[in-house]
Design brief:
Blueprint: H1 4-17, E1 23-28, H2 41-61, E2 66-73, H3 82-85, H4 88-95, H5 106-117, E3 128-131, E4 148-151, E5 154-157
Parallel strand pairs: 1-2, 2-3
Antiparallel strand pairs: 4-5
Length: 158
């Protein structure tokens, strides 16, 4: 679904946009496209493949005036991830590596997608936009008990 669904959707959308010589597509990859988490081999591989589709589609469709970009969400609160958000100790350790110290909301991914689809991004194609609270910019973790506390599902400075 993660890879084939995107491939088929790109093909269908391109068939409608090419005759118009304009359009924009925003696909959903993941931070796992870059950093594979343990025990998620199939998911990580499929999301990395989405970036391959992104780059190829941007290359092939750019001459038609069609822009193709991707959002790469980190941990976003959804039905599928709610189990992570309901375990404070697991969440605490995971969010230690997220610069903003919290998980994201679906609206934040939607806003990034809306930007990429808008005319404000008219000279952007083949790009990925991380919507991850800075997770991909952190390497060793930003948060710790020495200067912050974890409560109500997020890290905060003392």
């Amino acid at each position: 679904m993660n890879l084939t669904g995107v491939f088929l959707t790109l093909q269908a959308a391109a068939a409608m946009m090419k005759p118009r010589r304009r359009g924009t597509m925003v696909i959903t990859a993941s931070t796992n496209s870059y950093d594979g988490e343990a025990l998620l081999t199939a998911y990580n591989a499929s999301k990395a493949g989405v970036l391959g589709l992104l780059h190829t589609a941007a290359n092939e469709l750019g001459p038609y005036g069609i822009r193709v970009n991707a959002v790469c969400p980190g941990l976003i609160r959804t039905r599928l991830t709610e189990r992570h958000f309901s375990h404070p100790e697991v969440l605490k350790d995971y969010l230690r590596h997220v610069l903003l110290g919290r998980g994201g909301d679906p609206e934040e991914v939607a806003n990034a997608s809306a930007f990429l689809a808008s005319d404000m991004a008219s000279y952007i194609t083949g790009a990925t936009l991380f919507v991850d609270g800075g997770q991909m910019a952190a390497k060793f973790g930003t948060w710790g008990e020495g200067h912050a506390e974890f409560s109500a599902g997020r890290w905060r400075l003392r």
